[in-house]
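Fresh eyes needed here. Kindly weigh in on this sequence plus structure tokens:
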Amino acid sequence: MTEHSCKDGSHGSFKPARKIISIKARFPLIVDQRMRDSVTFSGITELGTLLAASEQYLYLFCEDPAFTETVRKHAPEYPGLRIHLLAPAEEASGESGWAPAYALRHFAAGEEKQDPALYTPGKDILETWRDPLLLDRFCDLLEENTLKFIPLPVAGMLILRSIATVFPYDTYLGRHYLSQYIAARNALSPDDRDLLIDIKEKGLPRIDDAYSDNVLRFLKIERKLYTQYSH
């Protein structure tokens, strides 16, 4: 029998060595004006824990400094929950004069703490709340692994978070799923996008035959990924 010294994975059970990526970025839920107007704080925490796949903590992002006071007011109502909020810092602003530095505040057990570091949009934080199409490079950004925060929009948050789970272990599969997400998202009409947001924010059925084919396609991708890849 001839032994094979080629380590390309074509013989035996050898798998080529590959360094598993340890993703640095956190994935906070974007709490935009629409969400603040139509969803209670309790509903926001439910969405955040759904994204985190945890009942113990959640990460939120908001560009409105006033939302910090909302979290301060309501956080004591959730003594068992660690709420991490990325919002404009109260004591600093960015060099540009219009893009403030952001602070990460932690609310838990009736106490509030703040990271000593401040975070800069574009450098530390992907500006997805201004341009959601930045997420088309999601896998590239995960591979570059320089960002500290990648805020996610509510409609696509579960798909993107699932991709972030599988990508470190299988980059090819992660990119395949991202291409599916982009194609499904681009096929949506404005009404379809509004419906996808309402499904999350208003608790509408996850799957319903009354939805358009494009909405159902998007939701089926979401269900498949969120079911298969735990966070």
Q: What stands out?
A: The first strand starts at residue 29 and ends at 30.
